[in-house]
């Protein structure tokens, strides 16, 4: 009984997802509705590192990578119009693509790189994925793919994973993004458990909350 209780300490995947979407919502409220409130943007920096960490964990726990990629692809397409409306006040623009595209490219990179034993080929796959993210102008761009690669390559070396994940936030030369280094605290408390299953809630939250933000800006 004691061992079971100890395994349950920390954050499950479900709890990390809740923390990430709350952080993301705060960030988007700050960006769209009250850009002068920098505190919300600081809070929002926790979201992306947590999502990248969970993407890597999800890859190693999923029973079907192709279905996982299909879900990300479908919601990337569903979310693009809400993303463009909220951040660009346009129904469609190629200026930047939503974060689901970044995660989709990252998942494809994990899948391809995991099949290769040669380090040179693995590095080449990572560079190709970074190039694709830049070509498509996805949210977080090549840096987002790099963070996914860091979490994957150091998955069996937790200290390196946490240090690398924290250090990534300082690559931007941006004081606000540096707050994202704090995301390694809840990540380090991940207990390896799935927790409650509300998979499609988390997928749907992204486009729905962006539409709400757009309508709020339209009303006010």
Describe this structure in words.
With 220 residues, the chain is mainly alpha-helical. The protein contains 12 helices and no strands. It has helices spanning 2-7, 13-32, 38-44, 47-61, 65-88, 99-113, 119-135, 141-153, 158-168, 175-178, 184-188, 199-219. Helix 7 runs antiparallel to helix 8 (141-153). The longest helix is centred in the middle third of the chain and has 24 residues, at 65-88. It is globular and about 55 Å long. The model is unreliable at 1-5 (pLDDT under 50).
Question: What is the topology?
Answer:
Elements: H1 2-7, H2 13-32, H3 38-44, H4 47-61, H5 65-88, H6 99-113, H7 119-135, H8 141-153, H9 158-168, H10 175-178, H11 184-188, H12 199-219
Helix pairs in contact: 2-3, 2-4, 2-12, 4-6, 4-8, 5-6, 5-12, 6-7, 6-8, 7-8, 8-9
């Amino acid at each position: 009984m004691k061992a079971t209780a100890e395994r349950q300490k920390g954050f499950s995947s479900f709890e990390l997802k809740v923390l990430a979407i709350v952080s993301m919502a705060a960030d988007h409220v700050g960006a769209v509705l009250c850009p002068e409130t920098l505190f919300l943007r600081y809070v929002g920096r926790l979201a992306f590192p947590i999502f990248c960490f969970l993407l890597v964990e999800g890859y190693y726990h999923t029973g079907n990578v192709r279905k996982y990629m299909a879900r990300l692809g479908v919601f990337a397409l569903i979310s693009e119009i809400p993303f463009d409306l909220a951040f660009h006040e346009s129904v469609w623009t190629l200026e930047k693509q939503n974060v689901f595209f970044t995660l989709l490219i990252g998942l494809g990179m994990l899948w391809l790189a995991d099949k290769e034993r040669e380090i040179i080929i693995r590095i080449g796959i990572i560079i190709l994925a970074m190039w694709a993210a830049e070509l498509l102008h996805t949210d977080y761009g090549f840096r987002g793919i790099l963070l996914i690669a860091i979490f994957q390559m150091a998955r069996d070396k937790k200290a390196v994973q946490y240090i690398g994940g924290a250090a990534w936030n300082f690559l931007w030369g941006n004081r606000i993004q540096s707050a994202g280094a704090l995301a390694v605290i809840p990540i380090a408390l991940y207990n390896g458990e799935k927790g409650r299953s509300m998979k499609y809630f988390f997928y749907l939250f992204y486009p729905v909350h962006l539409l709400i933000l757009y309508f709020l800006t339209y009303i006010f």
